[in-house]
């Protein structure tokens, strides 16, 4: 599958592996092994959990290297840097199958237009106003031919009410879900959460699983659960995550200033 000669990227990185590519390949393999083991341990079918490789603060060259290694699903967290980087990746030559990029970080309302042009989905929708802006922006992007499909939306849940980490309280999910459901340019996919640092990870993940189960009773198509990062992907997979967002374990430590 990852035969460097047939990755379809036309990329130099696959022809002659530089040291960075070798490093990324080893880290990627280790994370895939962790993920496969976690899926098997949870008695879930192979492929039940998507690996979103988080490339925020790393250059377009690293994205191209990862594409050469077979990665097609990426996460980015800051606009307009993300939009620029993705344009640079795409300018490097046609990629088959094409990669997708999800927005996983806080979106300022005024940046909705940029995000709606490049994102497959936004994992971090945390207020009604943002859902409404994304609906308008996604419709404009569809009309302009900048995108072919509705913009996926995951509502970010706050597990402990900490405003710094962001997210909606459980009681506020339905109102924002209604705003998403009211737009043909948006598609409600599920929920997302970042586990609080304090307290038991397993406790928070179990709480998230319960919130998701309740939510899907009224929103049966919202089957996705985006949870788990470099440090806690096993616990998230054990509690039903369908998408883990992994940065550091694959790319390495981010520059300190950027955290
Ligand atoms: C940066 C980021 C990640 C990746 O975290 P790592 O610990 O580096 O794997 C996941 N989710 C969100 C929302 C992020 O901002």
How would you describe what is shown here?
- The chain has 259 residues and is of the alpha/beta class.
- The chain has helices spanning 12-15, 19-41, 60-68, 81-91, 112-118, 128-143, 173-181, 201-218, 233-238, 248-251; strands spanning 50-54, 73-76, 100-103, 121-125, 151-156, 186-192, 224-226, 243-246.
- It has a single domain (19-251), classed as Alanine racemase (TIM Barrel, Alpha-Beta Barrel), CATH 3.20.20.
- The strands form two sheets. Strands 3-2-1-8 form a four-stranded parallel sheet. It has a four-stranded parallel sheet with strand order 4-5-6-7.
- α5 crosses α6.
- The chain binds pyridoxal-5'-phosphate.
- The site of pyridoxal-5'-phosphate (PLP) has 14 residues, from β8 and α10.
- Residues 28-255 form the Alanine racemase N-terminal domain.
- Pfam families: Ala_racemase_N.
- Belongs to the pyridoxal phosphate-binding protein YggS/PROSC family.
- Keywords: Pyridoxal phosphate.
């Amino acid at each position: 599958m990852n035969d460097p000669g047939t990755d379809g990227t036309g990329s130099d990185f696959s022809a002659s592996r530089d040291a960075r590519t070798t490093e990324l390949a080893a880290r990627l393999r280790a994370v895939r092994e962790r993920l496969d083991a976690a899926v098997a341990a949870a008695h879930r079918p192979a492929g039940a959990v998507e690996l979103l490789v988080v490339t925020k603060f790393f250059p377009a060259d690293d994205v191209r290297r990862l594409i050469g290694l077979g990665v097609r699903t990426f996460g980015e967290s800051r606009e307009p840097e993300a939009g620029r980087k993705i344009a640079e990746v795409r300018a490097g030559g046609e990629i088959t199958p094409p990669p997708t990029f999800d927005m996983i970080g806080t979106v300022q309302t005024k940046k909705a237009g940029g995000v709606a042009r490049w994102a497959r989905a936004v994992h971090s929708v945390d207020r009604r106003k943002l859902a409404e802006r994304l609906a308008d922006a996604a419709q404009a992007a569809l009309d302009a031919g900048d995108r072919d499909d509705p913009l996926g939306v995951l509502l970010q849940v706050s597990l402990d009410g900490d405003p710094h980490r962001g997210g909606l309280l459980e009681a506020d999910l339905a109102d924002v879900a209604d705003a998403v459901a009211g737009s043909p340019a948006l598609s409600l996919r599920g929920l997302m959460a970042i586990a609080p640092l304090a307290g038991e990870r397993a406790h928070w993940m179990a709480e998230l699983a319960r919130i998701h189960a309740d939510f899907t009773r009224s929103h049966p198509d919202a089957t996705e659960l985006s949870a788990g990062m470099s440090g806690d992907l096993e616990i998230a997979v054990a509690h039903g995550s369908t998408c883990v967002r992994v940065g550091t374990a694959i790319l390495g430590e981010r520059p300190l200033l950027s955290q």
